[in-house]
Every structure is written in C-alpha cells, then in structure tokens.
Amino acid sequence: MLQLNFEKLGGLLPVIAQDYKTQDVLMMAFMNQEAWKRTRETGYVHYYSRSRNALWKKGEQSGNLQEVKEIRIDCDSDCLLIKVNQIGGAACHEGYHSCFYRRVTPDGTEVDGQKVFDPEEKYGD
Q1: Domains defined along the chain, listed by start
Q2: Engineered SS bond to 38: which of 26, 30, 46, 116, CB 3.0-4.6 Å?
Q3: What would the pLDDT profile of 64-122 be if each residue is shown by its tens digit?
C-alpha cells in the first residue's frame, strides 16, 4: 500500500507540476491528504492553499485544469512530481505557461515567458 509522509510539513506535501509533453516545470504547490485523495479519484490535480486555508482544484476558476498523466514520489515519500496535461496552456495565475517565468540576472530579474491569458479577464479584481 502506498504510504506518503504528510507529517514532515504539518500535514502537507510539496508538489511539483511538470508539463508531460515539454517537460517544463510549471509550478510548485502543496497537497494535504484530502487533495491527494481527490487528485487520485478525479484524475485532475487538487492542491491545498496555505494562504486561503482551503482545498482547490487547479483551474477550477480559470479553466486551466491539470490532467494527471503520471505521478512520481521521491525517495522519502514526502514530495511529489506530477506530470500533467496543462489544459488551457497556463499554469500560473499571472497568466504565464509556467510560474517560473522570471530569470535572475546580475541586475535583478527579467521576464522570459509569454503570457497565455490576461488575469484580469479570468479573475477580475
């Protein structure tokens, strides 16, 4: 039986979402046991929002769902890598394909990603 270690971070597991076609790292978030259960049951990624203290289905509001293609577990069973079909093309709530759309430079940071959607249109104020 699969046993994940939710205890190290107070009931949460870090999760890295990766595009299964391009191998781009899309985002990092957390899951609690309920999010893990719903992800397995539905085939779509669910996360736990620490800021809202609530479960959320990725893309439920924006339409940018993450369909599970493969799940990998690290050696300590305390971190997940989920390869996904990123429906809608954007994983980032800022409208980019990946949350990692900024690169560190000697002068600070620079944006090196293209926006897929306008967050104002999806989320409003």
Answers
A1: 13-89 (3.10.20.810)
A2: 46
A3: 999 999 999 999 999 999 999 999 999 999 999 999 999 999 999 999 988 999 988 88
Q: Which of 40, 16, 35 is nearest to 91 (CA)?
A: 16
Residue written as token pair 């985002």: 27
Cα separation, 26 vs 113, in Å, equals 12
Please tell me the distance from the alpha carbon of residue 46 to that of residue 39, in angstroms, as a whole number.
5
Distances (CA, A) of 36 to 60, 67, 82, 97, 118: 16, 14, 11, 23, 29
**H helices present in 9-74, as ranges:** 33-42
Locus of tokens 């893990």:
36
